[in-house]
């Protein structure tokens, strides 16, 4: 039997499909049609039910034959996603009528997807391009399945829209509200976040350099900065709104305060990071404070500084959005989230969150790319 | 403790400097409004009297430290703990959801980390998302969670605790994955020569090796958890809690109240981080950690 | 001695090639070796010649890519599962969160011995390496030499007949090293264990061993095997005797030959 290699995912998927076949109707209309064959009731999956079950079972069976892993992964990938696509597209017009076999089939497809990811995880290709591709594909499939299950469950079970809208509705809402979303991004990110980020990080950096020149300051600022980093600084938002008004300036002020301390603490720590041997070497060259700082200590501190820049990229977004909960002109991501929540337009809230997530990732990604370019010599970058 | 004495003087002098600056700014920032008041009342106070007045306004732009201190003292020690204006009461409301969320978040984080370390598929598929999600301003989700849960009848402690859970499980997951992977190859080989089972390797090597990482990430998590609880109190117009105090202060322009709520929040945060830090040190000592 | 007792370790045509990112690295090739019960075999050779790899193959920490290896008449894997050997790494590799006593107890816990038996073995092995009185200390409270002795105690606690040691004294100073060498010899004489011992030092190899396996690099292989004619009783000053120096000279020649072969 060595042409067989069973996997629990495929076996369980087949079992689930068999149970689904035994249970019969996929949806309430189908059950009604079965109960009363004379009535002409339209129901979902008229022609595709057998196809879906067959696909899932066949893909599961093929995956258990001893074939090359890549082929197995492709079969599973195609099978799982085709079933999911048929399942989701078929429920259109019949939302909320799904019965147990619908969810069993969904689970079976998900198991095949899981098996596919497991097979891909086991691949150890020699070529580095293939390795990099796998590093992207595997999490991408995982992410896709979160969306698939979300979509299929919300629509199949008919979860109320205000509780959790399906991703397709959120996508449609994003596409339909681009001008509003764009205006919000401009207000929150291009005004408050970027200004606050640059000023806050810059001020933290300069303070750290000053503190470095004065050991007394450094010894005092480091513990204070560490302490303050743990405090709920976000709470200054109402004060900033009182001081600087409703517009973006108050949000920028919150961002400045939030980004200042991480930069201060990290830069001070980074300036202490260069080795004694290297510093002594600079001493033997009779190099002064500033040349040593620029040629040795700042480069050595770069990983720390970039770490702060990365932390700050997230903090800045959070600060600006949450500060808007305390009052804004009628535009801005935080404003939109809080008002649309109040109006129960949950799909718009999700759209705004998706945009915020995207903005956050792009922001972080840009900082990470700059870091790679600047600290190419550092082991953590060279290593991979 | 040499290093402690090294820091004490600089820290106290910097803090003293902050207080002095605070007074200076309080006078400067509150002066315009005071001048306004005086001119309307047709008064021309002397400089000392004028400064005294700027530091005693009921709704100052920047309250003076002693005003905040007095407000904080009154609302903390002079009110019955059951009063809704008591800071102890409000801090407790926030603290309870912080702790609940923190406990759940830590447990969840540990479970996910164990899964990631032991199941290669999870490591390759879930871990990148966990890392990516760090870059997402998750606090933006807070109002929605509160309102949606309220719509299905879940209110009070649980929704806030969920936000705290959400915020605190990330650092714990990342820290624990690092920690469970921290044993050196040589230690793993050693367990291999003993023919130790995976569960023996887990309990005798990976778990003890991960403890320092756990406590470091728990410090971050508990601070994040508190922020989550505070932000969770904003959108509902919650009746109690530090976030509610902030919101009410903002609404009625009670700047002194805002500041004393902030002080309360900071004290809670500092205490939480300290408690986790001390617990970490005790565990470390019990596990034979070298004194610093 | 080798001929009579059954082989504890038998390798034939053993080869191991690592697949690395920069192509294959042949760490061992065509190693034939038989080690009998009660022998003290040293492995010596230049850095990178595969001494550690060979020891790791015996310990089933690495799988050979060609040839066969048997330990106590079983495959290396079966032997490991039977806990047939104790392994001493180059560094002490003690768990920092366990006291010396608990460190020695680690393999015993894994074997599932009773508390009483654990206590008995801990006491016995710590006595053996002269560490009585340090049971409750943590590793960082001990000197490097004491830590290494604790790790030897941990390997001995197993009570396996085979002891695999990879440069156990490499990081220690000369004086401590002499002392530990002497103690190791006494221990070997008392317990009649089989010991495989990797070292960089010619005097150490000659002083300790009944046989010295000289290895040479690229690819790692056995280039010479030298039988020691020294008596089993070896005071430290045996190292000044002509007999000792003659064996040392032979080892040095073996090492040189391995090198010239390479260039
Ligand atoms: N895990 C590994 N992956 C790839 N190559 C390895 C690995 N382990 C060892 N090697 C290679 O195998 C060869 C032999 O290594 P080994 O560690 O056995 O040498 P050694 O004789 O113990 O050296 P040293 O005296 O420095 O400890 C070396 O060329 C080394 O680079
Ligand atoms: Mg070696």
TrEMBL record, chain C:
Which family does the record claim for this protein?
Belongs to the ABC transporter superfamily.
Q: What is the lineage of its organism?
A: Bacteria, Pseudomonadati, Pseudomonadota, Alphaproteobacteria, Hyphomicrobiales
Name it.
Sulfonate ABC transporter ATP-binding protein
Give a yes or no for keyword Transport in this entry: yes
On the tree of life, the source organism's domain of life is: Bacteria
Keywords, sorted A to Z: ATP-binding, Nucleotide-binding, Transport
Task: Supply the source organism for this entry.
Answer: Rhizobium loti
MF (Gene Ontology):
ATP binding; ATP hydrolysis activity
Gene3D superfamilies under this entry? P-loop containing nucleotide triphosphate hydrolases
Q: Report the Pfam families cross-referenced here.
A: ABC_tran
